[in-house]
Amino acid sequence: MKRRAFIAGLGAAAAWPLTVRAQQRERVWRLGVLTPGVTVLEALPAIILPELAKQGFVQGRNLVVDVKLGAVEALPQLARELAATAPDVIIAVGGGAIRAVLAATTTTPIVGAFIGEDPVAAGFAASLARPGGTVTGVVMLAPELDAKRLDVLHDAVPGASLIAALAVDANRDAPNITAMQEQARRAGLQLRTFYAAAPQGFSAAFRNMSDAGVQAVAIVSAPELAGNAETVAGLAIEARLPTICEWPWMAKRGCLIGYGPIYAELHSRTADYVSRILHGASAGNLPMEQPTHFSFTINTKTARSIGLELPPGVLVRADEVIE
After folding, report:
1. What does the pLDDT read at residue 21?
2. pTM of the model
């Protein structure tokens, strides 16, 4: 009996270290994030990481997150630094970030968060249904949406005929501006473009708009502008200019109108792409998605601040009215 008890105890003792070693050997995954704007930094702990935790990828346990934030010109160097850490997948916010990662690594899967341009024309994918390379993600079709926002702004401010477009970079934002110009011609509007690559240039851009006599402003889809929504909206209010912005939540920060996809849903979809890749899916086999739900928010407090009376029909169409 004593011998059998000793053998049984030995087996249990041998099994215990195996269990410990198995726990110690649990794989640690690396998630990289490359972004030129700060808004994803808010969504990361609020939406993306909780969604990943539901799938078993928990920061601090088996997931390491490395975030690189910088201006567009700094993205190539930041992408190289990120690639050097051998991440299992990288979230790249916008076309500039995607290009920087593609130049830094040809093997790391990339989840494009808010791909604002046509990914096929940009060379990111062979098709939306079957990308075929290392890039997949959520396609925003920003030029089409910016053109649509110009139409919504015209409905809200029908007396405005000279509209400003506030953009960041002439080359990068050219497809958006072209689409907006085409929409302006169809609507019988004049569109003038002003650029500000950083917050230091916002005040000058709005002074130039006032000098040009513009009557409303369409804020072009750009992470740099979304990340400074309160500053942009504040300057527009000082200039008494009605604005339309790319995200509904930007209306809560002072824009007159926020029109676009539901922000939380898109970040949730981004997390889903990351999870599927970490579970073994190939980025090239994951179809790119386009947003299907949109929200229209109006800030009537901003309207009162600039002395604007909105058409009743526009207020009725709004999904949310901020008083």
Report:
1. 43
2. 0.82
